[in-house]
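Q: Make up one entry.
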Amino acid sequence: MGKVAFTFPGVGVPFSGHEAAFLARNEPVMRPFLEEAGERVGVDLVEPLRAQDTSGLDVLACQVLTHAFDVAVAEACRARGVEPSMTAGYSLGIYPALVASGAVGFGEGLDFVECAYRRMKEVRPEPVWGLAVIIGLERDEVDAILRDALMRINTNNATSHVVSGSREALESLSARAAEAGAIKTVLLDVDLPYHHPGLLGDATPPFADDLRKASWRTARCPVVSSIDQRLLSTPESLVDLTARNISTPIDWQAVVRTMSANGVETVVECGAGISLTQNARLMEDPPSFVSVKTSLRRISV
């Protein structure tokens, strides 16, 4: 496998159909994380994974489930001898990335998920916000059609970008994207303008105060910053990254490039779905990606 990195997807990723089988193979390792997370939100989080259906969960429960499953997949891989040389998180995936790096514990990661959602809702309580993914346009083409305080807040790859803002503005963006030649625009099922500094900047200072109350440690392996792609290990740098993550644009394509530049040959996508694997397919010379869909064949997990 060569040098390995663990990456963690965010919330709302469609199931690949292989999550239940992965859980069944690794249940003794994974179940404690899912049960602890379920106790936090007062619901069973094991059954939605077995049924491949989260429609009965509220927004916070879905985020908690994402965190728990991401961490549990990483621990299942470690139990089979797969160790990361670095970690990185896609949006909400920052929290399991911190746990997998050894910088914080699993329970503290759950605290961060809950605190981040609460702090963002304090500044943007109205359910009028969202995200959209534009597929088929390059970065400059996306920027040229943005209006009404919309902002491009992530680059998945050269022709896939995420835009944040009001749902009304995102809905009108779809028509402009089609006129510009986009393959499609997908409105995501979220209720906050994630990574938008103009709309969520006020949430960062109080969230930073929340983070400083945790017991941080120097990470065993560095976390790749999704903001500026530095390799971070110290508590101070990781608190800063985590606090700014909620209200600062990220660049996932640059994260993967940084991993390649640092000798990573295999990236394990620790979580549901295959979104990060799919993003890498449209990058130039990416590392080899392994997901829950391919883990049994590729790394015997």
Residues 8 and 93 are 5 Å apart (CA to CA).
